[in-house]
What we know:
Layout: H1 4-17, E1 25-27, H2 28-34, E2 43-48, H3 51-61, E3 65-74, E4 77-86, E5 89-101, E6 104-107, H4 113-116, E7 120-123, E8 126-129, H5 133-142, H6 147-156, H7 163-172, E9 174-175, H8 177-190
Amino acid sequence: MLPTQVRRALSTLLERLRDSSIEWKLGGSVALALQGLEISPRDVDLFLPSGDAARLMAETLGEFVESPPQWRTSEPFASYYGHCRIEGVEIDLIGELVIETPQGSVELGADSLLWRRKSSLLFQGWKLPSIPLEIQLVTYCLMPKREERVNQITSLLKGRVDLELLDEFLVEQAITPPVTAGIQSLLRKER
């Protein structure tokens, strides 16, 4: 369940975006909580397909912006990153995310499968575009010290994993064969 402050921030954000045509997807802990993971998110992660989309989102959010999106790198991440604050909650704007590790790399720019596949979550009558669990799982597998989150997402996928989506995403991305095989094996057990 989402903390009250995060729910209020998300509602305010959605009201602001009501008439916007900006393409975005909800990811991170809020998306996981809305899908049943028992965690208490402290921020909201909005993913965008490009730097231009991230800058347009910042313009749309106007007075809430604390840091406009700029290209930033912090191993293993690179993205057009900026943030806003709504109702005291940080809203991260993450455009064209790249994760690079020795186990492989993921690029979530405009050409990624992420933007060609529709996925949504319900929140207080709103239909929120979201990052599919299968794609979130792959990204968390590449992040350091995220084994617990990987296990949590794997449990959420039990009985509902979309192996076609997973396989297509793994083929599209530059993930090493051992990591790809490990992810596929893990989820085939959950099916």
